[in-house]
Amino acid sequence: MTDLFASERLVICRGRELFAQDKLALADAMTTLLTPKVVEPLPMSFHGINSRSKALHWLQQTMAESELLVVQLKPARQVIAAILLHGVAESKAAINIGYLLAEQYWGKGYAAEMLTALIRYYKHMKNISTLNAGVAANNIASISLLEKCGFCHIPGHGNETLFYRLKL
Fold first, then answer.
1. Helix extents (H) in 3-127
2. 3-state class (DSSP) for residue 47
3. Is there a contact between 82 and 71 (Cβ–Cβ < 8 Å)?
4. How many whole angstroms separate alpha carbon 52 and alpha carbon 162?
5. pLDDT at site 157
6. Rounded (10°) CA dihedral 133, 14, 35, 54
7. Share of the chain above pLDDT 70, in %
8. What value does the mean pLDDT take over residues 26-46?
9. Total structural domains in the chain?
């Protein structure tokens, strides 16, 4: 397995590689990550992932629709988060991002570290010009995180979901 990028406390790798290496361990990690509180503001496809079989199905569906990045804590390689990327293209393009962080890691700086590392990675890639993120209007922590990392609110997209953009 090849690490895609890393930060001081985190290692980020491709979900497809982890799935190929040990799909059962990845499925078990997803059942731990995708708790009701974590997925509360997300679409229904993220809800009810509470068994290995449901997690395997969710992983296959998710990886068919998007790029899944798995965030692991150094040095134990414990899965603590996931990043979903949509719209990956070879030319100058925008990527839509989403992220999930396990509850026990909230408020400890891991989300900011993960997002900062992702931004740094794509700034060096040169083929991506913009990162976009959608966030539930009541998810104050995630809104603050996006703004802290330099994302700007894009007005006029409704009341329940807010959209943010970062030009790289």
1. 15-33, 36-39, 52-65, 110-125
2. coil
3. yes
4. 32
5. 67
6. 120
7. 95
8. 95
9. 1
- What CA–CA distance (Å, rounded) separates 62 from 92? 24
Residue 105 is part of a domain; what is its CATH number?
3.40.630.30
Residue type, 82: A
Place of tokens 């970062």: 166
Q: Copy the structure tokens of residue 55.
A: 């997690």
Distance CA 7, CA 117 (A): 6
For residue 94, count other CB atoms closer than 10 A to its CB.
Answer: 18
Residues recorded for the chain: 168
Question: Is the pTM of the predicted complex or chain greater than 0.90?
Answer: yes
pLDDT digits (tens, 9 = 90+) for 65-101: 999 999 999 999 999 999 999 885 555 688 999 999 9
Strand partners, 93: 128
> 37, 84 in Cβ contact below 8 A?
no
The answer to whether the CB of 91 falls within 8 A of the CB of 127 is yes
Domain containing residue 59: 3-167
